Amino acid sequence: MADTSDRDAARSRAQTHFSASDQRDSLVKQMIESERAATAAKTAKLRALRLAKEEADRAAAANAPKPETAQKTRARKAPAKKS
């Protein structure tokens, strides 16, 4: 009889150890998932800000007046010297 109770006690201790380990594992997985979600949200926010800035820059460039180009004057050829 003492042998059976020793086995039960050992089984109970092992089960307690494994359940505590499983709880820690699930907690770590939850923490990792929440960190991934936070990173994904931050990335989405930054992407949206970047796209909005690029769109504003594109619109500003499209609406900006075109710079006037200076007309180049043609250089005149110097008259050939007579020798």
Question: Which secondary structure elements does this structure contain, and how are they paired or packed?
Answer:
Elements (H helix, E strand, L loop, with lengths): L1 H62 L20
| Structural class label | mainly alpha
What is the makeup of the main sheet? none
State mean pLDDT (0 to 100 scale): 88
Poorly predicted runs are none
- Report the sheet-strand fraction: under 5%
Give me the count of strands. 0
Shape, per Cα inertia axes: rod-shaped
Give me the strand/helix succession.
Answer: H
Round the Cα radius of gyration to an integer and report it: 39 Å
Q: Give the N-to-C terminal Cα separation.
A: 135 Å
User: Considering DSSP H and I runs of 4 or more, what fraction of the residues is helical?
Assistant: over 70%
Total number of helices: 1
Compact summary:
By secondary structure, the chain is mainly α. It has one helix at residues 2-63.
Defining traits:
single chain; 83 residues; mainly alpha; 1 helix; 75% helix; rod-shaped
Structure in words:
The mean pLDDT is about 90. The chain is an all-alpha fold. It has one helix spanning about 1-65. The protein has a domain at about 30-60. It is rod-shaped and about 130 Å long.
